[in-house]
């Protein structure tokens, strides 16, 4: 037996990114970081409380993206999902971001600094990265 939970799935894949900007709702503005982005929406991590309910219209301003408008679809633990208003300007701005500014986000492995003695007895700093065993 299958149930229809009225959950709408994403129409396009999102790509991870690190873009900083702010979200404006009515007269308030909150700094945010865009975690992932697609032509139809984005997930944001908020730096402070955003007093807007699901379904509220918001504006996102970011240097590399410009101004985008959308609707809050979900909120959870300081993160917000926004569905962009469907218009050619928003799609052009996002495709321009991916064409000119987007850099692939990869996880950063921790490094530790080791002291290695040189040939003449002086200490040299050396960065050691952990190796992964398969």
Question: Which secondary structure elements does this structure contain, and how are they paired or packed?
Answer:
Elements: E1 15-25, E2 28-37, E3 41-46, E4 57-62, E5 66-76, E6 79-84, H1 88-100, E7 112-117, E8 123-128
Antiparallel strand pairs: 1-2, 1-4, 2-3, 3-6, 4-5, 5-6, 7-8
Describe the structure in your own words:
InterPro entries: PilZ_domain. It holds the Pfam family PilZ. The chain is mainly β. The protein has one helix at 88-100, and strands at residues 15-25, 28-37, 41-46, 57-62, 66-76, 79-84, 112-117, 123-128. The strands form two sheets. It has a six-stranded antiparallel β-barrel with strand order 1-2-3-6-5-4. A two-stranded antiparallel sheet has the order 7-8. It is globular. The model has no long low-confidence stretch (mean pLDDT 78).
In angstroms, what separates the terminal alpha carbons?
41 Å
Uncertain segments: none
Count, helices: 1
Largest sheet: number of strands, sense, barrel closure: 6 strands, antiparallel, barrel
By DSSP, the count of extended strands is 8
- Gyration radius, to the nearest Å? 21 Å
Overall pLDDT, averaged?
A: 78
The topology string of helices and strands comes to: EEEEEEHEE
- Biggest sheet: strand arrangement: 1-2-3-6-5-4
Structural class: mainly beta
In one word, what is the shape? globular
**Beta-strand residue percentage:** over 45%
């Amino acid at each position: 037996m299958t149930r229809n939970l009225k959950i709408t799935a994403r129409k396009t894949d999102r790509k991870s990114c690190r873009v900083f900007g702010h979200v404006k709702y009515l007269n308030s503005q909150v700094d945010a970081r865009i975690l992932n982005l697609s032509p139809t929406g984005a997930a944001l991590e908020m730096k402070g409380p955003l007093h807007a309910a699901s379904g509220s219209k918001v504006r996102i301003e970011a240097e590399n993206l410009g101004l985008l408008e959308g609707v809050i679809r979900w909120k959870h633990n300081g993160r917000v999902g926004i569905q962009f208003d469907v218009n050619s300007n928003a799609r052009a701005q996002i495709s321009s971001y991916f064409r000119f500014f987007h850099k692939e986000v990869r996880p950063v492995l921790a490094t530790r600094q080791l002291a290695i003695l040189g040939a003449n007895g002086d200490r040299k700093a050396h960065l050691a990265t952990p190796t992964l065993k398969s």
